[in-house]
Amino acid sequence: MSRLFEPVKLGEVKLTNRIMHSATMESMADEEGNITDRHIERYSVLASTGIGLIVPGTMHVNDVGRFGTHSASISDDRFLPGLGRLVDIIHANGSKVAFQIQHAGRQTFRKVTGQRCVAPSKGKLDPMFLARPRVMSPAEIESTIDDYAEAARRAFELGVDGLQLHGGHGFLVNQFLSPFFNRRDDEWGGSDANRFRFVREVFNRWLDLKPASSFLMIKLSVNDFTPQRGITPELAARYTAWLSEMGIDCVETTCGTGSFSNMNIWRGDLPLKEMVGALPPAKRPAGWLVMRRMVGKFDYEEGYNLEAARTIRAAVPRMKLSLVGGLRHAEYMEKVLEDGSVDMISMSRPFIRELRLVDELRKGVSQVSCVNCNKCLATTVKNEPIKCSCD
Questions:
Q1: What's the whole-model pTM score?
Q2: By C-alpha distance, which of 159, 131, 350 is closest to 259?
Q3: Residue 327 lies inside a defined structural domain of this protein
Q4: Domain at 141, CATH number
Q5: How far apart are the C-alpha atoms of 351 and 345, rounded to whole Å?
Q6: Staple partner for 219: which of 50, 145, 252, 302, CB 3.0–4.6 Å?
Q7: What pLDDT is attached to residue 93?
């Protein structure tokens, strides 16, 4: 039997196979943050293929943490009807679902949130988001943890199978965990244990709310690739050990930050023409100068988070690991499952191109059709519904 299609358990939840849809910024919500028919159409098709686990696009916990003008919200009970439709359609079509809960921190725009962005620490002008974040007070940190708890309450009331905390890509949780972003000297920073405190407090609240029949996981940066030292594989392994002690069920390994190392997240081509064209006209000359220097520096490499995942596996062998990042060949996926490097295979860009990818893998296709052209990224820059734009 294909290892891809063997069952795996996260907590008490049995997944029918080891394939996971990694959270993808769909930009399909309405301007309030409500789930729309576009979501329902996309995820009903994905679920009907029998994919083991679907993590829809990230959902913000409060208004200041909103990432995009069309990102989904879980910040208020008024969003429950739409979110409930999403859970129901995925379950009705045979898949399990986990919501990814997020706060953008410094990685957002005033035009999106209507207010100045926040972060654990002060910083220089953000090179991508062109803003200087306001430092969160201890009271504001506690209030944000409350928002994460309320988001979890809503999700569990709707019957999700699990929750994923977004701890990667330079968003707020990553900002607390990373020595590069977090330069506080109070109880929320200054040491690895203090930088981990935000995650610990969120998960403690989630553990109190979690039904026995559900699981908790985190999307964790295993390498920030920031200008100065951020999260490294060794630090990620240390954090994973603490997560394991808490009873967290799975880590999805990822890398890079939106502000300082974004193409590490999406290795492959840099579609210069499309990306510059997606910018407002006034920003295109500067965008061209910045992005043209990046062309050819982030070439595609299959499984580019694998070695970091192996570092974590060696240190914390009991933690379930899901690998994301450039997985394109079935033989490669089978190999890393067979040798025990990871427990699950997670993909994002391939599902943008092929909603029925799991059907194709089940039939024995040897390679996904995504070629890492990254033209789909231009649609996210424009806050348009995600689509494959590859020729």
A1: 0.96
A2: 131
A3: yes
A4: 3.20.20.70
A5: 13
A6: 252
A7: 96
Q: Which two tokens stand for residue 191?
A: 């040491």
Residue with tokens 């725009």: 109
- The beta strand positions in 81-223, using DSSP E, are 96-102, 118-119, 134-135, 162-167, 215-221
CA distance 260 to 20: 27
Comparing C-alpha atoms, which of 135, 246, 254, 267 is closest to residue 201?
Answer: 246
The reported pLDDT for the residue numbered 1 is 61
Question: Domain residues for 276?
Answer: 3-381
Q: How far apart are CA 134 and CA 105, in angstroms?
A: 10
Regarding beta strands 72-73 and 118-119, do their DSSP bridges make them parallel or antiparallel, or are they unpaired?
A: unpaired
Which residue bears the tokens 């500067």? 286
Distance CA 269, CA 249 (A): 34
| Percentage of residues of the chain with pLDDT beyond 90 | 84
For residues 207 and 226, what is the distance between their CA atoms, to the nearest angstrom? Answer: 32
Query: Which residues have C-beta within 8 Å of that of residue 222, sequence separation ≥ 6?
Result: 231, 232, 233, 236, 253, 254, 255, 305, 308, 309, 311, 312
pLDDT exceeds 90 at position 181: yes
The answer as to whether 104 is a domain residue is yes
In a domain, 147, yes or no: yes
Altogether, the residues listed in the chain come to a count of 391
User: 268 — alpha (psi -120 to 50), left (phi > 0) or beta?
Assistant: left
Tell whether 20 is covered by a domain: yes
Number of folded domains that form the chain: 1
